[in-house]
Amino acid sequence: MKAVQSFIGEPVAIVGAGLVGAGWAIAFARAGLTTRVYDANPSLSEKVLPWAAKQLSALHAHGLLGEPPQVVANRLVCVNSLKEAVDGVAYVQESVLERLDVKRQLMEDLDAIADADVIIGSSSSGIPASAFANDLEISPRALIAHPVNPPHLVPVVELVPSTQTSADTVEFVDRLMVSIGQSVVHVRKEVEGFVLNRLQAALLREAWALQRDGVASCEDIDKTVRDGLGWRWSFMGPFETIDLNAPGGIADYASRLGALYYSIARSRVDDGPWNAELIAQVEKDRRQHLCADDLAARRDWRDEKLMEFAARKSSISGQSVSEPGSCTGA
Amino acid sequence: MKAVQSFIGEPVAIVGAGLVGAGWAIAFARAGLTTRVYDANPSLSEKVLPWAAKQLSALHAHGLLGEPPQVVANRLVCVNSLKEAVDGVAYVQESVLERLDVKRQLMEDLDAIADADVIIGSSSSGIPASAFANDLEISPRALIAHPVNPPHLVPVVELVPSTQTSADTVEFVDRLMVSIGQSVVHVRKEVEGFVLNRLQAALLREAWALQRDGVASCEDIDKTVRDGLGWRWSFMGPFETIDLNAPGGIADYASRLGALYYSIARSRVDDGPWNAELIAQVEKDRRQHLCADDLAARRDWRDEKLMEFAARKSSISGQSVSEPGSCTGA
């Protein structure tokens, strides 16, 4: 296993060149790494370079690139075979189809052809690594590295080891991800949905139930988050938010509001699946605020907003805003 | 009932001058309304003017006041009796103690002394208006107007009518709140926790369970939100987020991920209360990132960040970023 320090300038491989893989390619290239891109479907990998050129221009316009876009683009190399992609690389980020058989086949292929010390991170958002990466030579060197889409715009990445991943591998990918500017979350057990999608699932379940029961519209629920809860969560997270929301901190908060929150939770005990009728109702509600024909344009708007957000975060982190520190005492 | 148009420049009353009431006072005064502040405890109302002066200076420094702080401060008037506070006002925002008997007593007092057309908004975060504002002369003119704390920094406000609130009252408070720059959410049924705290409760329940089960630390869960989910939620909300996260929009998203999310929800069916042991465990975890002694300073940091956030939102809303439009077709 190579040290991260010797890593910058060395090649990494992106296997699977859909939106997630292409976003990863930018994240690595932007940090100075030569990035080989491969997809079994050549029509996908052909799209990566033109797409990346547009994204890099936009990042540059928002002050999010330290170099000219072309310098970063020059680090992206599309290749025509898996062998060519992984030959001599220290790290492979796989973002192939979210299907057990497809991921397992790739692991077996990598097991056969990759160097003996290569590390493999999987973008899997749901399937745990133990389900497709175990009982191979490479098993100790494979884990989940699950990003938010798109990974070059939103920094969080969940690292989830399999039952056979080594501690060295987790540490290596942690350092690598931090070195390219991602924000690493360690998920210690292979729970369904990992952490990010479990949190999202919990909030969405309540949101859908409120819409279904006629308590509030999609738009009003969105407002509650984007003009309320989301402001604090975008720089504090839920624990710090409540820690600051009672005079005595989080334990004080729990003793004041724990009973209410438990009562709310019990009111949603097995609330049923989202059935076809409810899906149709929610879609109709959403379409009053965004036409289906405008979805693509609105995604461009979202990416633009994420860049503004990232630019603001990076300018603020250069200022003297105090960051949380650990207790020296207790 | 007075028209909102004739309202600016007229007095409003703030009853209850803790942090929520004091924040409301700034929100109204900033929008040009003369704002009378009353608390049954004079030591609380005495603190409002010096506190407001500091807040107004900070708002001004962030470009969030269109006038000198002193001009806004001059609209704040501390008064010594409820009668003096509400005499001739069109609107009363009550933010007294969150206790049924206290709120009921205030409603009865207002019923006895306020003008016949006064409208009353309650900052209650949990007790529904039907529990304390019904069967009085003023009942049709009272509703919940629940803010996020502090209301002058975070714009969302939930309007929740009681079973006896008139539609005119809801409309009046909607217009008033929009005119002072708040973001109005209509909650159509008096559900426990309304919308905002139900959404927060759902996310917190999952977050606490993940910490309890050793899946992730408080800090890593906070990171997942503040470096991931919170970025999108801070300008889109949860429904728009998923509407843009599948090629065919929200129904497509639900058909792809509905089963996973339902499975996650079922894994948390009646998960138990936060008991003393869990509260101690979570507090210990949080204290590794923030000492109890630093809570107060960190709250100042939070308010500073919220002002930066508000300043950025207000500068962006002046740009040509397209806002969501409703379908002209479907």
From TrEMBL, chains A, B:
Q: Which residues form the signal peptide?
A: none
Keyword vocabulary terms for this entry:
Membrane, Oxidoreductase, Transmembrane, Transmembrane helix
Instruction: Report the InterPro entries cross-referenced here.
Output: 3-OHacyl-CoA_DH_NAD-bd (IPR006176), 3HC_DH_C (IPR006108), 6-PGluconate_DH-like_C_sf (IPR008927), 6PGD_dom2 (IPR013328), NAD(P)-bd_dom_sf (IPR036291)
Q: What stretches pass through the bilayer?
A: 12-33
Using the record's annotation, list all stretches that form the 3-hydroxyacyl-CoA dehydrogenase NAD binding domain: 12-190
Q: Where is the 3-hydroxyacyl-CoA dehydrogenase C-terminal domain?
A: 193-262
Q: Which SUPFAM superfamilies match?
A: 6-phosphogluconate dehydrogenase C-terminal domain-like (SSF48179), NAD(P)-binding Rossmann-fold domains (SSF51735)
User: What PANTHER family does the record point to?
Assistant: 3-HYDROXYACYL-COA DEHYDROGENASE FAMILY PROTEIN (PTHR48075), LAMBDA-CRYSTALLIN HOMOLOG (PTHR48075:SF1)
Task: Give the similarity note.
Answer: Belongs to the 3-hydroxyacyl-CoA dehydrogenase family.
Name recorded for this polypeptide: 3-hydroxyacyl-CoA dehydrogenase NAD-binding protein
Organism, by scientific name, is Paraburkholderia piptadeniae
Lineage of the organism: Bacteria, Pseudomonadati, Pseudomonadota, Betaproteobacteria, Burkholderiales
